Amino acid sequence: YFQIRIVGEDQRETTFITSWGYFEYRCMPFRLTNAFFTFNRLAIHVFQPLFGKFIRLCIDDFAIYSKKIDHLKVQTV
């Protein structure tokens, strides 16, 4: 989640107040309304060539189920 950037004009929507001042998220935190769907869409896009070979995506976790040598042989795009 923390690797997905928030568009500049939407960062204002993540503002929170502390005793040290106002802060905004620059990267997507957990618990935003569409954070799960955004992360899931990105993960499917990135790992789709590997689905069925040695990786599964389950909600927001990855499962790798091969021997190390098997998935080292696969060349990604």
Mean pLDDT: 79
Which word captures the global form?
Answer: elongated
Strands, total number? 4
Q: How far from one another are the termini?
A: 22 Å
Strands ordered across the widest β-sheet:
1-2
Helical percent range? 10-25%
- Poorly predicted residue ranges: none
What structural category arises from helix and sheet content?
alpha+beta
Order of helices and strands: EEHEEH
DSSP helix count?
Answer: 2
Instruction: Give the amount of beta strand, in percent.
Output: 15-25%
Largest sheet: 2 strands, antiparallel
Q: Please tell me how large the radius of gyration is.
A: 17 Å
Would you write up a description of this structure?
The structure is a single chain. The protein has about 80 residues and is an alpha+beta fold. The chain is about 25% helix and about 20% strand. It contains two helices and four strands, in the order ββαββα. It has helices at about 35-45, 70-75; strands at about 15-20, 20-25, 55-60, 60-65. It has a two-stranded antiparallel ribbon. A hairpin with a 2-residue loop joins strand 3 (about 55-60) and strand 4. The radius of gyration is 17 Å and the shape is elongated.
